[in-house]
Amino acid sequence: MKNLFKDKVFLHNITILALPIMLNELINSLINIMDTFMTGKLGAQSVTAVGLSNQIFFLFNLCCFGISSGASVFMAQYWGNKDVKGVRRVLGLAVISAEFFALLFFILARYIPGQLLGIYSKDAEVIVLGESYLVVVSLSYFFTAFVNVFNIALKAIGRAAQPMFTTLVSLISNVVLNYIFIFVMHLGVKGAAYGTVCARSIEFALQLSLIFIRRLPVLGRPRDYMSADLAFIKHYFIIAMPVFLNEFIWALGTTIYNVAYKYSGTVAQAAIQVSSSVQNLFIVAGMGFGTAVGIILSNSLGAGDREKAIDYSKKGKKLVVLTSIFSGVVLILFAKLIVSFFDIDEQGRRYALYMLYVVAAGITVKNINFINIVGILRSGGDTLAGLIMDMSSVWLIGIPMAFLGSALLGLPIYITFTMVYMEEVVKLIFSEARVLKLKWANTII
Questions:
Q1: Can you tell me the distance from the alpha carbon of 112 to that of 422, in angstroms, rounded to the nearest whole number?
Q2: Where is mean pLDDT largest: 42-51, 203-212, 243-252?
């Protein structure tokens, strides 16, 4: 730890980059939690309907994240090599890919929402409420795809403060508009969807406007974004495709957890939505440092400084461990107070509280896995290893545990949740071993 705090340059660089990323992730989590919190005033069915509808968004958003993360490896290394045209070339490919998935998920959510929600719930009222939410909120997918890619690009070139600002505006817009649509206009669950669509469109317009006004390096001529030849596209997808598959298959697996949880009933599912939303708030510090470390490592590798990248990877992990332990302690202390804010019945609150204790105990393990796979391994293009670890842990451990506890044994939801969390423990063993081999420390541009 002494070496960590002696390196003032590293601490300065990581803090300048990580703090806006943390705040951005925190605000993003708050945007998602506001729909759950505000619709909670309408009852457990509404909370569950919005939460399960957001599983579709979660799957889509992870597709965008996979595309953006794969592109970020290239963009950060190009930026480290002072190649702005390379950044724009990758950005063009990423936007086209993300908007393709926005269209795909829009069609599914718009035209077969009932069938999608029927996968996650047996409650007819939940499905009807969820349909009204999903049909409207699907319009936001196009804005979200664009914003996600450009946010990642801005972080890769060291402009992380702007995404933080635009996301904050989106949060404020979402809260205000949710209140108007849900409680003033009495549109209920559908009102939450209208609020989300408006907030995301405001974020999109603001982000685009600031890029033009400030003439940021990501801004170029149309041909800059379409300049990739076939050889580059092939090289790009060899590195980026495992990242996309990693996020998509992992996200698909985690949504299947909700298929298993439906056997525990609507109250248990509402508790899951609450605990999952709160968990996202408390992992942002570890995720912020993990993402920032990945960018700094990619910049160093792009500049040809392998030894600095290896040194920074070790120091970055120490920061993640410290912040994760602190986050876990804070969550334990305030879990009961946090759960009391949600309008679900007493049994649901008790379940959510127990699950938050599990999250607090496991948050360090979860964040170490994040920096290992998303931060360190991806920074040098070792993306296939991350795909194998994430896919195996979810599909061979997490999903079987979810169905065993909920569908077969009928255990209380918090026990099933604990069983599922064991996938993070197993993944830690393999992710640590892979990082220590140093096969990730490569220049790929």
A1: 34
A2: 203-212
